[in-house]
């Protein structure tokens, strides 16, 4: 594999890592304000849950449709540092537009949706750029360490912003939450000015990944199909991810049903959400501490069993403590899966198409969310939360055991 020449390999690599991690923390922290504020604002202005659904759907669709084009655009750029700064500036301008709409009390749902979609599209550049920068700035055996650290930073920021927003909304006008997000982009942009890009970066050809990925720019499926053709061990990982995404998409529905119907205390919904998030943070930290001793395919095997087992514990427990333990374990399993998957993609996809193909891969996974969001609530209404969790948990656990028994999670993923 051709080498990537890094400027300032020693101290520079450490400095770059700190910049990326701090930037990810601040970015996620600020974005949390806008995400929550948009839902509160839409609910307060229009007093109809349908509007919240339309807003969510309007943001979701461009994320799927534009995944490959955004990735392709990133792959065409040689100076990713400046592209990242430009995306921060564009996202900050979009947040200011939303702030002005609220400040002058311009209650136009169409305008609000347009501003929210534009903001989300510019925000979508952040992840593929960071994925590619990780490959350019660090050694191959450091990818999972960096990805685990990023996951920890983002989860911590999400938890912190969620708690802070809850307190601020009790006395602060809603429009000022968008200013917090605007300031976060300003801070991130200034921090990124100190990022050291590689002086020379070649386009490596990585192992089994084949040649250049060619597909219609708007056809994410085409890129993923070639990826699976060139690297078959990834196929069972993708199938499992699709199934998990369907199961875990309506988390808020599970929390509301368990707190209201089973434990007769709706206030537990917030506690459950916090335990799930803390579990995710714990999983990220555990991965970060143990990645040198545990191989990637082992992390994936653990996650594939842990998700349905912990879902069963969460849904079938008669005791709130056991239910919360189940949520901790469920949240902790997801970083094992997510970090490992991202690391595998960074190692097997040629750098010249990394953003395009990896963005397409994750957009395909996200495409299954509406199935879970629309279908599972109907099943819960028909069967009840207890029966659904039993059937779903046993079915997924059985499938996981079959995958492991057939040795489908291959050491080739390492």
TrEMBL record:
<dbReference type="GO" id="GO:0005886">
    <property type="term" value="C:plasma membrane"/>
</dbReference>
<dbReference type="Pfam" id="PF07690">
    <property type="entry name" value="MFS_1"/>
</dbReference>
<keyword id="KW-0472">Membrane</keyword>
<feature type="transmembrane region" description="Helical">
    <location>
        <begin position="320"/>
        <end position="340"/>
    </location>
</feature>
<feature type="transmembrane region" description="Helical">
    <location>
        <begin position="234"/>
        <end position="256"/>
    </location>
</feature>
<dbReference type="InterPro" id="IPR036259">
    <property type="entry name" value="MFS_trans_sf"/>
</dbReference>
<dbReference type="GO" id="GO:0022857">
    <property type="term" value="F:transmembrane transporter activity"/>
</dbReference>
<feature type="transmembrane region" description="Helical">
    <location>
        <begin position="177"/>
        <end position="196"/>
    </location>
</feature>
<feature type="transmembrane region" description="Helical">
    <location>
        <begin position="111"/>
        <end position="131"/>
    </location>
</feature>
<keyword id="KW-1133">Transmembrane helix</keyword>
<feature type="transmembrane region" description="Helical">
    <location>
        <begin position="82"/>
        <end position="105"/>
    </location>
</feature>
<feature type="transmembrane region" description="Helical">
    <location>
        <begin position="361"/>
        <end position="380"/>
    </location>
</feature>
<feature type="transmembrane region" description="Helical">
    <location>
        <begin position="386"/>
        <end position="406"/>
    </location>
</feature>
<feature type="transmembrane region" description="Helical">
    <location>
        <begin position="296"/>
        <end position="314"/>
    </location>
</feature>
<protein>
    <submittedName>
        <fullName>Major facilitator family transporter</fullName>
    </submittedName>
</protein>
<dbReference type="InterPro" id="IPR011701">
    <property type="entry name" value="MFS"/>
</dbReference>
<keyword id="KW-1003">Cell membrane</keyword>
<keyword id="KW-0812">Transmembrane</keyword>
<feature type="transmembrane region" description="Helical">
    <location>
        <begin position="50"/>
        <end position="70"/>
    </location>
</feature>
<feature type="transmembrane region" description="Helical">
    <location>
        <begin position="268"/>
        <end position="289"/>
    </location>
</feature>
């Amino acid at each position: 594999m051709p080498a990537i020449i890094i400027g300032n390999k020693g101290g520079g690599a450490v400095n770059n890592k700190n910049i990326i991690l701090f930037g990810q923390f601040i970015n996620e922290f600020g974005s949390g304000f806008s995400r929550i504020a948009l839902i509160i604002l839409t609910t307060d202005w229009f007093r109809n849950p349908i509007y919240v659904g339309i807003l969510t759907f309007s943001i979701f669709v461009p994320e799927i449709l534009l995944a490959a084009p955004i990735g392709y655009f990133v792959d065409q750029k040689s100076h990713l540092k400046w592209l990242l700064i430009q995306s921060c500036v564009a996202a900050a301008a979009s947040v200011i537009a939303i702030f002005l709409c609220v400040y002058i009390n311009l209650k136009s749902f169409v305008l609000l949706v347009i501003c929210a979609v534009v903001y989300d599209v510019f925000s979508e550049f952040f992840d593929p750029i960071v994925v590619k920068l990780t490959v350019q700035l660090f050694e191959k055996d450091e990818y999972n360490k960096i990805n685990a650290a990023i996951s920890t930073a983002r989860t911590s920021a999400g938890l912190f912003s969620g708690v802070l927003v809850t307190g601020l909304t009790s006395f602060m006008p809603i429009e000022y939450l968008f200013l917090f997000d605007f300031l976060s982009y300003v801070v991130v942009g200034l921090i990124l000015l100190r990022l050291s890009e590689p002086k020379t970066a070649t386009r490596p050809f990585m192992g089994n990944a084949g040649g250049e990925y060619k597909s219609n720019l708007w056809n994410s499926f085409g890129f993923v199909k070639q990826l699976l053709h060139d690297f078959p061990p990834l196929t069972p990982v993708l199938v499992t991810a699709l199934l998990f995404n369907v199961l875990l998409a309506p988390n808020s529905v599970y929390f509301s049903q368990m707190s209201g119907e089973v434990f007769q205390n709706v206030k537990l919904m917030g506690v459950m959400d916090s335990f799930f998030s803390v579990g995710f943070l714990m999983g990220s930290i555990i991965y970060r501490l143990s990645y040198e001793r545990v191989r990637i395919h082992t992390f994936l095997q653990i996650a594939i069993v842990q998700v349905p087992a912990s879902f069963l514990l969460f849904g079938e427990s008669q005791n709130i403590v056991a239910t919360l333990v189940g949520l901790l374990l469920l949240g902790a399993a997801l970083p094992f899966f997510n970090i490992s998957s991202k690391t595998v993609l960074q190692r097997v996809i040629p750098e010249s198409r990394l953003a395009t193909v990896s963005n397409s891969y994750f957009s395909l996974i996200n495409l299954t969310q509406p199935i879970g969001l629309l279908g599972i609530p109907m099943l819960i209404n028909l069967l009840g939360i207890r029966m659904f969790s039993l059937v779903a948990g046993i079915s997924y656990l059985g499938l996981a055991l079959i995958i492991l028994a057939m040795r489908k999670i291959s050491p080739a993923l390492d």
